[in-house]
Amino acid sequence: MEKTVKFTIDGVEITAKAGQTIMQAADEAGIYIPRLCYMNELKPHGSCRVCTVMVNGNPQAACTQPVAEGTVVKSETEKIQASRRDIVDMLFVEGNHFCMVCEKSGNCELQAMAYRLGICAPKYPYLFPKLDVDGSHPDIFIDRNRCILCGRCVEASQDIDGKGVFEFVGRGQEKRVAVNAEAKLADTNMEVTDKAADVCPVGAIIKKRVGFAVPVGERLYDKEPIGSDIERKKNGKT
Ligand code: FES
């Protein structure tokens, strides 16, 4: 019989499969823990820290922390939500996220997370970086000004597409996503059908000629907050 583990999230008792992460167990139970770098099909690597929860009083990334019998997890406290708002705030000002003209608006996880967390305008000053854009590929456009360094494209290209088109270069403030070619995306073997073309949570990697196909007001997060699909499970409306 499959081994199970019981623990609580914000007072709700969860029965999880041994070996699951807190995030996986919460998702199955219909409890949404905010996240940005995590994506179901990809290996979790805990880079954005938006999913940080308190586990028996200690901060841990829910996407990488395995469940353990009897642990007490807190996720929706005012303090944790405030730190999530700070992280999202900083991501906004570190890049150039002009939602009103961005074709990812309404389908953007960063924008949707900001709305979910109640952010109307960032509280930190904008840095207005001037980062590279790459329009060389016939079907895919890269705007590094919108990149939040989540690493999804790096992993998807490596682990799912088996290509390794993207990699991180530089450190700290200089960290960027680079392509595995001398200069530009067009010189790689990336194709528009690659998983890496589909996983960007923001408007940093977008497909050309599909941007405004769905009108504003009818896009994914125009209709309901991010995480609603998971929360529906709890309400029995899957
Ligand atoms: Fe867990 Fe990003 S979602 S660290």
Task: Walk me through what this model shows.
The protein is an alpha+beta fold. The chain has 2 domains: 4-76, Roll (Ubiquitin-like (UB roll)), CATH 3.10.20.740; 84-211, Alpha-Beta Plaits (2-Layer Sandwich). The chain is built from 6 helices and 10 strands, in the order ββαβββααββαβββαα. The chain has helices at 22-28, 78-94, 109-117, 152-160, 220-223, 228-234; strands at 4-9, 12-17, 52-55, 58-61, 72-74, 133-134, 140-143, 166-169, 176-179, 205-207. The strands form 3 sheets. It has a 5-stranded mixed beta sheet with strand order 2-1-5-3-4, with helices on one face. It has a 3-stranded antiparallel beta sheet with strand order 6-7-10, with no helix packed on it. A two-stranded antiparallel ribbon has the order 8-9. Helix 2 runs antiparallel to helix 3. The protein starts with a strand and ends with a helix.
Summarize the topology.
Blueprint: E1 4-9, E2 12-17, H1 22-28, E3 52-55, E4 58-61, E5 72-74, H2 78-94, H3 109-117, E6 133-134, E7 140-143, H4 152-160, E8 166-169, E9 176-179, E10 205-207, H5 220-223, H6 228-234
Parallel strand pairs: 1-5
Antiparallel strand pairs: 1-2, 3-4, 3-5, 6-7, 7-10, 8-9
Helix pairs in contact: 2-3
Bound molecules: FE2/S2 (inorganic) cluster.
Short note summarizing the structure:
With 238 residues, the protein is of the alpha+beta class. The protein contains six helices and ten strands. It has helices spanning 22-28, 78-94, 109-117, 152-160, 220-223, 228-234, and strands at 4-9, 12-17, 52-55, 58-61, 72-74, 133-134, 140-143, 166-169, 176-179, 205-207.
